[in-house]
Amino acid sequence: MDSMRRRLTVTTSAIETSDCVVKIQKKGQVTIPTCLRNQAVITGGHLIEAAFSRGRIILAPKAAIDRSKFAASRDEYTPEQRWAIDAGIAEGLEDFRRGRSYGPFASAKEASAYIELMAKQRATEKRSKRRD
Questions:
Q1: Could you tell me which residues come within 8 angstroms of residue 23 by beta carbon, excluding any fewer than 6 positions away?
Q2: Are 54 and 89 within one domain?
Q3: Nearest Cα to 47, choosing from 35, 56, 31, 59?
Q4: How many C-beta atoms surround the C-beta of residue 40 within 10 A?
Q5: CB 61 within 8 A of CB 46
Q6: Helix (H, G, I), strand (E, B) or coil at 58
Q7: DSSP-based three-state secondary structure for 1
Q8: Domain final position from 22, 39, 62
Q9: For position 45, what pLDDT does the model report?
Q10: pLDDT in tens, 55-77
Q11: pLDDT of residue 49
C-alpha cells in the first residue's frame, strides 16, 4: 500500500515536477506525463485521490477494492471465531503498545535469522527448566 502513497504536487495553474510543467485544459483536465505515471504505477482506469492543502492540489493513486468478490466478514466466521480473532488482534496491539515488538529488519533474511535465534533461545530455556 505504501507504493500507492506516492504523491504528485499540482499548483492551481500547472503541475510542478523536477523536469516538466503541464498545461491545464479549459475543462480542468490534466494529462499526467508518462514518466510520472510509471513512477506512481498508475495506468488508464486507475483512481486518483485529489485534495487541496496549503495552496496546492495533491494527487495520489487510490487503491480500489471490489468488495463484491469477497465474502462479508459476518458470513465467514461464527461469533466464537470472531471473538477469538478479535482477542488475538487486541493482544497483539497491546504487545505493540508495551514495546514488545522487534525490528524493523533490513531484509527477510535478517528477520528469519532473528526468528531462528529466538527459537534456539527458547528451546534452551525449556531444557534448563526441565532440569530444575
A1: 14
A2: no
A3: 59
A4: 20
A5: yes
A6: strand
A7: coil
A8: 62
A9: 80
A10: 888 888 877 666 666 666 556 77
A11: 85
Length of the chain: 132
Retrieve residue 9's grid coordinates. 504536487
The one-character DSSP state at 87 is: H
Q: Which three cell numbers stand for residue 122?
A: 527458547
CA distances from 59 to 33, 36, 130 (A): 13, 12, 61
Q: For residue 31, give the nearest of 59, 4, 7, 52 by alpha carbon.
A: 59
Of 62, 82, 109, the last residue of a domain is 62
- Give the SS3 label for residue 30: coil
pTM for the whole structure = 0.36
User: Which domain does 29 fall in, by range?
Assistant: 2-62
Please tell me the predicted confidence (pLDDT) of residue 38.
Answer: 82
Count CB atoms within 10 A of the CB of residue 55: 7
Shared domain check, 52 and 9: yes
Confidence of residue 131 (pLDDT cuts 50, 70, 90): confident
Q: What is the C-alpha separation between 48 and 42, in angstroms, rounded?
A: 9
